[in-house]
Amino acid sequence: MSNRILVADDEPSVLKVVKYYAEKNGYRVDTASDGESALRLFQDATPDLVVLDIMMPGLNGFEVCEAIREVDIRVPVIFLTAKGDLVDKGMGFKLGADDYVTKPFEPEELIMRIGTCLRRRDAFPVERKNPGVIDLGDLSVDLSSKTVVVRGAEVSLTAKEFDLLAFLAQHPTEAISRVRLLQGVWGEDYIGDSGVVAVVVRKVREKVEENPAKPHHLLTEWGYGYRLV
User: Fold this and answer.
1) Residue 145's domain spans which residues?
2) How far apart are CA 209 and CA 150, in angstroms?
3) CA dihedral 203, 204, 209, 211 (to 10 degrees)
4) Tens digit of pLDDT for each residue in 186-215?
5) Omega before 172 cis (within 30°)?
6) What is the pTM of this model?
7) What is the pLDDT of residues 22-39, one digit of tens each?
8) Which of 10, 18, 33, 87 is deepest in the core (most CB within 10 A)?
9) Are residues 172 and 196 in the same domain?
10) Closest alpha carbon to 166 in 70, 106, 79, 96
11) What distance in Å separates the CA atoms of residue 146 and residue 129, rounded to the nearest whole number?
């Protein structure tokens, strides 16, 4: 069965174009013109991927994404943003966004990104015993209670340590750049030393890895960033 996509945008022309190209590529498509309708469709249609315009009447894209993440941490979310808008991408990634596409965009590019997000999700399934809980082997991250359990025992993390681990956990096995981590965890307005990412990664490893010098979960992608497996 083909994947189902929910597209939410207050511009009818965008909905028409995305629906046409997505259906042309074999996807089933539901559309919504505002945030409230998007949430209702998400609950009713249970899509495999969501495309969200950020600036919508009523609930904006960030608010819709936050509501979605309360019940589903795995469905890919792609944000649409108008060129020139001052958008806090750090906030979007922190809420669990998988990608951004800037308007105006080439429909083929959006379809390509949709396919990439779906393949990534299917290639690296994450067991979900409860909504909001990400289980990666002997490492469990509860996004709702902000608790982490490793090998059956709860570990104590600072707020920033948890935010970094949770950000990586929402993109399992994906290599995340240091810049993206800095934006997603500390925010785009952060003006401190970028080396803070490596410092917090080291502290997290000391708490979740059996041997921090030879990590099993929080891996380094040399010259780029980090990956959680």
Assistant:
1) 133-228
2) 8
3) -20
4) 877 677 777 889 999 999 999 999 999 999
5) no
6) 0.58
7) 999 999 999 999 999 999
8) 18
9) yes
10) 96
11) 16
